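Hey, resending since the last one bounced:
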Amino acid sequence: MGDLLLIFVKWPEPGTVKTRLAQSIGNQEAVRVYRMLVRAVFKILAPLISSQEEQSEPDSLTFRLLFTPESRRKEVAGWLQEEASLAGWSNGQFSMKAQAGGDLGNRLRVAFEQGFEEGYEQVAAIGTDCVEFDCATIRQSFDQLSGDFDLVFGPAADGGYYLVGMKQPETCKVFDGIPWSSDTTLAASLKVAAGDGYRVHLLKELSDVDTAADWQRVRAHV
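The structure tokens again:
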């Protein structure tokens, strides 16, 4: 059935998005920045969308937007469809689904397990905190999963990860009991992977946008 890329997004409500950044620039400005980051990620992925439309093979890459909260479904749908259209995405090439409840680990686990249950061969997930990746990063992730590796992580400079991918649902245990939003997030997942003998490929390290300094670094690019 091909591969699935999950993109986790959140309705831009003041006080709920980019909270660390908001401590420096305020909630309203943090919302504006968050919207810009989402738009930037959509534009980065646009060439992948276009390449999928040109392929006639059924084994292609599908895009799914995982949003929260469920109560904002209508507003989120309107916002994301507009952003996708502005970025050049085709409606037929992506779907939308509400995130599960619980912590990030449970939300990731449910989304990955659903993807495998639907028949996708490989599943990867990204958020919208990192805008330094490119289409080659996504392609490399799935290429490594097609080869010898069970897991792919994109390390973030703050100790987390901007991308995670796998090719079997059993590997979802790397999401269990992890200290999220911590400088040991990736290390904890790698420890679980090593304990179970999973083969892991690490992509190049990139940086998230979490602080005012992070935002200033990527602002001109975004």
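The first strand starts at residue 3 and ends at 8.

Sorry for the duplicate.
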